[in-house]
Design goal:
761 residues, alpha/beta, Alpha-Beta Plaits, DHBP synthase, 5 domains, 11-stranded mixed beta sheet, 7-stranded mixed beta sheet, 32% helix, globular, binds zinc ion, binds fe (iii) ion
């Protein structure tokens, strides 16, 4: 895409009163980019317009060439449709929304602190809690507002005279740095054996932790927003032991790399990806491995995965560990499978006792859990897949003003959100609400977000699904409840962050969501108007034998799809992998269940169609983690394959997108022994074609892509390109996850549009 776009950025940090606006003005006018810049209590907002290349250059230069005293603690940007600026101007400052400005996310260690950390002559040499006004913990240590030391988890540490002097000196980099500390007065680390006995403390503790990691031990390390489990990423036996103990069979593990140059050697790195990795937010970035460069990494770090999730050290403790180690480590969240991350050492000792061999802990309490964020670059834009450390609790800024509402999210990848004025504050990632621990984290975060900003929600927005624990929470809140259909919430979230008010065609594709007709939706096309939506098209439905079990067993989706077109005959097709995958006795039961429609709900889910194709070609019959089949189908595809599969559109009430010709074509390609890589590509191409075909039928110029399926890079890129080529204006997720992590925002936006509540007038 080469046509002009609008870049919108919010920059927070020491950027006010340091000549930042004149600097932005000079840079923009020098590059002949029209737009504006303004100050607000939340930071510096700017918008400029230009070609994608120029906008990218501007973005990279903006940070690199900033005024000496300006420090960027957060830079969030999105690319949006043109507004039509003709010149660049400095706009008058905003004064509204002051309260929200104070809660900053945790910020990766800045260059100045890093220099001190490794300077043998500095009094903070090797001190793992070094920080300053420009970096360090924030959200993870704040107990209440205003943000003053007694209201943080640093309250118990009395500053020594040296630290106090820095803290009180307006000319010092640590002037009013609330977590300011040094080896004489601040927190310290300790190294514990498996049973919690203190083995050693301070610098010796770090040395011992380094030795333990080198020797293949699993070390639970207390970090910024919780514990990591850390092992040597080059030690296959150690990584396997971690997987076994954590009950995490195949889901990819994140890496912390020793240096940027290690990353450059092992993965493809564009300038935007490099920026993302080095940004103050320091998320886990999904990066494509270099061909044939597996050297030094244990195969079970990310089995069969062409991408690696990599982050750079982001606290002084991580910097010291990695500097000593000089090798990449697996740094995965310190929890059991999908429970929330541990934040407290006694809790960690109990919950991780059968996972970790050693503990590297410290005595600065963590006020709230904050996981590592996950992001990737898609189509030259950031796409956040998990929004937590570095981003939470920053709001999404909207053009219209909202009443105070609480959005409680869905069930998986849960987050909650609360609105105030033009802002919707998104909580950090909470997780799947499957365990009592997760449910209490959900309650804690909800109460926390409300009390932190001193907001009193007037309405609670929740999912339409009656059995979600988040829905039940809403029902018992005592407040008016707005039930928002899942796929409408997906589309509404995507529209909100792209400044689209509608009408639009929402393409909401995911694994599952409760439909208006009580069936399982997931391959939906919604026409979104001022106050609601209409389901204008959907994928043809099929049965899921075994119901919920189909989520982890793609062979069941495959069977359901085949049954839909072949009928009971399918059970004789033992030449097909998903049929053969069931023993004969089980096949008989499945045949009866499908014939009677027992425990075989109907679904229009796109996620399950991915599963069905993965199962059909024998790529993945049973999953070890959520979404594995769809991911493997994407990873397997051969991008050189340009062919696509046929499909049919049936006009019947809402249009039905019939995949039968597609599945029949897959079957004949299978018979011809076409490689799975090419079948997968043809399938992906067909999905992109389907989206364009429905968009043409519906005729809404704006098309928004949302739902977990659009975490698939190939699908998103191809759908966007083909929609653009066909004259549509596609929009997709950037700051807010396309998966259920974005639902809470969508619920609030959709609830505001409801006529009967009429709160947005
Ligand atoms: Zn610093
Ligand atoms: Zn001190
Ligand atoms: Fe969803």
């Amino acid at each position: 895409m080469t046509e002009r776009q609008r870049l919108r950025a919010v920059i927070r940090g020491a950027v006010q009163g340091v000549g930042f606006r004149p600097y932005v003005y000079r840079l923009a006018t020098q590059m002949s980019l029209p737009g504006w810049v303004k100050n607000s209590p939340q930071g510096v907002f700017l918008e400029i317009e230009g070609t994608p290349d120029l906008l990218e250059t501007f973005l990279l230069r903006l940070e690199d060439e900033r005024p000496p005293r300006a420090s960027i603690q957060s830079l969030e940007y999105s690319l949006l449709p043109l507004a039509g600026f003709t010149e660049f101007e400095i706009r008058a400052s905003d004064t509204a929304g002051a309260r929200s400005a104070v809660v900053l996310p945790d910020i990766a260690t800045c260059a100045d602190c890093l220099r001190e950390l490794f300077d043998p002559n500095d009094r903070r040499y090797g001190y793992p809690f070094t920080n300053c006004t420009n970096c360090g913990p924030r959200f993870s240590i704040i107990r209440a507002l205003p943000y003053d030391r007694p209201q943080t988890t640093m309250a118990g540490f009395m500053m020594c005279p040296d630290c106090r002097a820095e803290y009180e000196n307006p000319a010092d980099r640590r002037f009013h740095a609330q977590p300011n500390a040094c080896p004489a007065c601040g927190p310290h680390v300790a190294f514990w054996s498996q049973d919690g006995t203190v083995a050693t403390q301070r610098q010796d503790a770090i040395r011992q932790a380094v030795d333990a990691i080198r020797n293949g031990k699993i070390v639970a390390v207390k970090g910024l927003g919780g514990f990591h489990l850390i092992v040597n990423a080059g030690d296959e036996a150690a990584v396997l032991r971690l997987r076994e103990r954590k009950h995490r069979e195949e889901k990819p593990l994140a890496l912390m790399a020793p240096s940027l140059s290690w990353v450059e050697q092992h993965v493809e790195l564009s300038p935007l990806e490099s920026r993302l990795l080095r940004s103050p937010e320091a998320p886990i970035a999904l990066l494509r491995r270099k061909q044939g460069n597996g050297a030094g990494l244990a195969p079970s770090v990310a089995p069969g995965n062409p991408y690696l999730g990599i982050m750079l050290p982001y606290t002084p403790l991580h910097h010291i560990l990695l500097q000593e180690l000089e090798i990449p480590v697996v740094a995965t969240s310190g929890n059991l499978s999908d429970e929330p991350i541990c934040t407290d050492e006694t809790d960690a000792l109990q919950r991780l006792q059968n996972v970790a061999d050693r503990f590297l802990v410290h005595n600065r309490p963590i006020a709230r859990h904050v996981d590592d964020s996950v992001a990737r670059i898609v189509l030259g834009r950031e796409m956040i897949l998990r929004r937590a450390r570095g981003y939470a609790p920053f709001p999404v800024h909207l053009d219209n003003e909202l009443p105070c509402m609480l959005g409680v999210g869905a069930h998986l990848k849960n987050t909650v959100a609360i609105s105030a004025g033009h802002d919707v504050f998104l909580s950090q990632h909470i997780g799947d609400l499957e365990t009592p621990e997760a449910l209490s984290a959900f309650r804690r975060v909800t109460a926390d977000l409300t009390s932190l900003y001193e907001l009193k929600p007037e309405t609670v927005a929740c999912d339409l699904h009656p059995d979600y624990v988040s829905t039940r929470y809403a029902d018992t809140s005592g407040l008016p409840v707005a039930r928002i259909q899942h796929h409408y919430a997906h589309a509404a979230a995507c529209m909100a962050e792209n400044e689209i008010t509608g009408p639009a065609l929402g393409v909401s594709w995911d694994g599952t969501g409760y439909g208006m007709d009580r069936t399982v939706w997931g391959g939906e096309f919604l026409r979104i108007t001022g106050d609601g939506f209409e389901r204008v098209a959907h994928l043809r439905t099929f049965r899921l034998p075994g119901g919920e079990r189909a989520v982890t067993e793609p062979r069941r989706s495959a069977l359901g799809v085949l049954y839909e077109i072949l009928g009971p005959e399918v059970f004789h097709r033992t030449d097909l992998a998903p049929v053969k995958a069931f023993p004969e006795a089980e096949r008989r039961i499945l045949a009866q269940a499908l014939a009677a429609g027992l425990n075989s709900p109907l679904t229009s889910s796109a996620g399950r169609l991915f599963d069905a194709v993965a199962g059909l070609i024998g790529l993945r019959l049973v999953c070890r983690f959520e979404g594995q089949a769809a991911m493997e189908l994407e990873w397997s595809l051969d991008e050189r394959e340009k062919d696509s599969y046929p499909f049919r559109i049936v006009e019947a009430g809402p249009l039905v997108l019939d995949w039968e010709p597609l599945v029949r074509a897959v079957l004949s390609d299978l018979a011809l022994l076409l490689p799975p890589a090419r079948i997968s590509a043809r399938f992906h191409n067909a999905l992109a074609d389907m989206i364009v075909a429905i968009a043409r039928k519906i005729g809404e110029p704006v098309v928004v892509l949302s739902g977990g399926c659009f975490q698939n890079r190939y699908l998103t890129e191809h759908a966007v390109q083909r929609l653009g080529a066909a004259g549509f204006a596609p929009a997709w997720h950037q700051r807010v996850p396309p998966n259920d992590g974005g639902i809470a925002l969508g619920q609030i936006v959709a609830a505001c549009r409801l006529k009967e509540l009429d709160p947005c007038a």
